[in-house]
């Protein structure tokens, strides 16, 4: 099958390679000429045979909006656009309408797999009409992990459902990573434990907490014992926030996901104003000692 792929970053570049290994013809476009197969989006559209399928793999928000708007001008009736980036699900409806006005179909695809997807395959959560998803199935089959189709691929529902599922996936990921990280800190704090990395390595087989994330933490600790080369500053890419916001709208309690999101905010503070205020209050009401900042700072 022929596919146009827009966005050849860390994931898009590997997706192009995996699809080509699977026997598909992939024509990629990226603003960086050293990785792009064509010079412009118009050239990409011209290089594809109608009816065309184009996969968008660019950062969510403004860049995705601009890309889909440009595609509406260079593609035509009968074509199909797949947004595989981390767009918020509420953006899918407007994107689908913009394209539908030109006779262009739309699928939203949540993609998980990161830099390991090239060899391990990508977990796919897609939203769209049945006929559109069926049309794109050869692409999904090449990208997903080997094994039963339901293990690694799901047609979640109509447009928007795929990105909603991916948002919740990433919210769960936030909570899992925080739990594993807290467990590591507990092990490292206890002198009885000689090697926290060895514990996490042992957990990779036969335990109920084993997982790919847990294996990756064991790998990271082996490469950098004590994690001395890494700052604790942690960004959030949007999906964790969106999950908490949607949980509030739906009145669904997600305390673990919410706490993991706020933990990332805390990681960016060298000295927490909140905890300064707590220390001051303890001193005011109970006369508890506080640690003073030295005159030298």
From TrEMBL:
The keyword Oxidoreductase applies. One of its GO terms (molecular function) is phosphogluconate dehydrogenase (decarboxylating) activity. The keyword Oxidoreductase applies. SMART domains: 6PGD (SM01350). Keywords: Gluconate utilization, Oxidoreductase. Residues 162-296 form the 6-phosphogluconate dehydrogenase C-terminal domain. GO terms for biological process: D-gluconate metabolic process; pentose-phosphate shunt. InterPro entries: 6-PGluconate_DH-like_C_sf, 6DGDH_YqeC, 6PGD_dom2, 6PGDH_C, 6PGDH_NADP-bd, 6PGdom_BS, NAD(P)-bd_dom_sf, Pgluconate_DH. PANTHER family: 6-PHOSPHOGLUCONATE DEHYDROGENASE (PTHR11811). NCBIfam families: gnd_rel (TIGR00872), PRK09599.1 (NF007161). Belongs to the 6-phosphogluconate dehydrogenase family. This is Decarboxylating 6-phosphogluconate dehydrogenase. It comes from Mycolicibacterium rufum. The gene is gnd.
